[in-house]
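Problem 12. The chain below contains 344 residues. Write out its predicted structure in token notation.
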Amino acid sequence: MGDIAADKAELIGFFVETLLYGIFVSVFHQSLRIVLGKRSGSDHSRLLLLTSIAIFLAATGHLIVRLLRALEAFVDHKNRSGGAVTYYANLHTALEVCQASFQTVMCILGDAMAVYRVFVVYNRSPIAIFIPFLCLLGNIVTTVGTIVVIGQSSSSEATPFYFHKLEMWLPAFLSFTFCTSIICSGLIATRIWYITERITEFSETKGRGKMRSVQRIFIESAAMYAVAMLIYLSTYLAKTNYSIIAGDTISPIIGIAFSLITIRVNDTFYSAPTTFTLATQSGPLAFRATGQSNNRSALSGVHSVEQSDIQMKTMPLSINVHHSTEHGSDQGSEQKTRTFDQLS
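Solution.
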């Protein structure tokens, strides 16, 4: 199959990005309602809110710049020599720098949030994020290099010469962000598996199936982003104009994957009641936890249970089991608390 014309690839890429952006707006609205519905007001909640808004603004800015470039290419330059093809071949423009900046910033925000999640999940252990943090640093360095190459390119330079200079930076940038996503998602999935196994050691509960669902959520979100990034990298290294279409899908996919994690984790833990059976010295203790339907407590609500109280949060997630034993009317009650773990 032959290559596609650059101007046609730009139009198709803009169309595909618009469709994906519409999906992103929908899932962003849902995830924003969930995050704003949290009552805890924790640092994690504020960080998640700010990151979500920043990613949305960057995706919106990227789409606006794509529209402005399309108008200049197909309206302002339609009667000039070379038309839209010549316009898109000239990468020494402020709009091109803005477009590349919005996209790379979104990648950095997504990768930084993934590294932070690993940091929290592993009890804020610096060792756990050593390799992901190095990948994030490499991502930042190659981002700066990519933007500098675009900004310093001459308007008289031909496209192949520009690509020759960019080949030192863009593949490295895509590789770093690809590795960061895969490594972080793998570490989070491994941690969830470990927590699930620990719960299984002293409990028999259907709730651990939900933990496995969260594990799949992170794996599937990482896979969606990784596949899009891999297609972009492959088409760019092949030096085809299909890389333009693949590159335009990256921005909305970052936002979609990021927002879907919040939505699906919330739905997983609060879609249905969960029955737990814990082994105790006095015999099995069964209780039922039901999530609240109130949106404002969707992520941090306290569940009502029989014989016990359980408090669950998805961002971060904590499970506290309180077992009260009556020793008589005069002696009161003794409360024992176990905290399973914290997951972000």
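Discussion. The first strand starts at residue 203 and ends at 205. Students who got a different answer should revisit the alignment rule from Section 12.3.
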